[in-house]
Amino acid sequence: MSISIKDVEHVAKLARLDLNEKEKNQFTKQLNAILQYAEKLNELDTDNIQPTTHVLELTNVMREDETRESLPLKKVFLNAPEEEDGQIRVPAVLE
Fold first, then answer.
1. How far does Cα 72 stand from its chain's mean position?
2. Which first-to-last residue range defines the signal peptide (predicted)?
């Protein structure tokens, strides 16, 4: 499979890109080089390889949920733009 200048022009049109001739030629060469490299993967013998979702074995690395003390309100309100009646006041988003 190879990419033609027409393919590059089509994708550029879809992406609303205005490419000059030099850029069209450059992208055509680059995309063809990528496809040639990807075709090398077809040469690999993967018959006895188990499908995987990730190359490394992953385990859940999240910490356990623990009950902890909350920050004191005075400390929380130091980072708030405004405070009103013990709550953080923010600009209204609905009218």
1. 37
2. none
Q: What is the CATH number of domain 5-43?
A: 1.10.20
State the burial class of residue 43 (Cβ atoms within 10 Å of its Cβ: 0-12, 13-18, 19+).
Answer: exposed
**Bridge partners of residue 82, in order along the sequence:** 89
Q: What is the pTM of this model?
A: 0.49
13-32 pLDDT, tens digit per residue, is: 999 999 999 999 999 999 99
**CB–CB of 86/73 below 8 Å?**
yes
**Cα dihedral sign for 23, 26, 29, 31?**
negative
Task: Give the domain ranges of the chain.
Answer: 5-43
